[in-house]
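Checklist before submission:
- one chain only
- standard amino acids only
- sequence pasted in full

Submission:
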Amino acid sequence: MRGYAGSERRQFPRIACILQTDYSPLGLIGSCDHSRTINISLGGVLLRTGDSFKKSQPLVLIIRLPHNQTAVTIMSEVVWQKRIPNSVMNEIGIKFLQLDSALNQFIEDKLR
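Returned file contents:
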């Protein structure tokens, strides 16, 4: 967060990682859109998208892991949203509500 001089507030370390991700508001599974992660942690993910969401909006994420034939489906919720200056894109901070074991292992391996 630009201009923030306080202590780090994140509970989990983040790693820069680009993963293909589909997302959909809970209950609208047929209306998926596509994005890529900017970074990821055991607690959540940062996506860049042209869509807007309200804080606390539940989302379903479908994340494709490298070298994995299947995608993982994660229940999540929007924590914050920020418009990228001079752009139509937003950065969306998303918290995982549950973590799939394959995604957990992928993140743990990246953190080592």
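Reviewer check: The radius of gyration is 14 Å.
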